Amino acid sequence: MTDREATQELTASEKQPVAGEGTRPGPVYRPDVDILESRDGYLIHVDLPGVDEKALDVRLEDGVLRLDVPAPAPDGAVTTPLHTEYRPGGYHREFRISEGIDAAAVTAELRNGVLELRLPKSEARKPRSIEVRAA
Q1: Most CB atoms within 10 A, among 17, 64, 74, 79?
Q2: Phi, psi values for residue 106, rounded to 5°
Q3: How do 57-61 and 41-47 pair as beta strands?
Q4: Which H or E element spans position 33?
Q5: Domains along the chain with CATH numbers
């Protein structure tokens, strides 16, 4: 390990605001996601720090998977920020889902600020082996 690696500074990651979103109170952010594919389906991890599962609205409608979290209500505390790197706000993200997903079997679990969505492939879309016979 070099001296430079040992003294590397931590930098804050910038939240990405949702462009053109003006219908909700407060800022709305686009959460970061990881999408993984396996033989049986897709796994989506969504970063939602500080979100309570009761505030999270996950919908699959007309081929669109939609995630919404409203901006938190002000707590009424009277403070003057001296330095802030985290701006609270709501979250919104949408994904167009292929017809090869079994919509009835989609599951969601929120753990430690990460939403895990499991989207299983329909049986017709799963890869299968084809037996080759000798003629």
Answers
A1: 17
A2: -70, 135
A3: unpaired
A4: strand 33-37
A5: 24-71+82-125 (2.60.40.790)
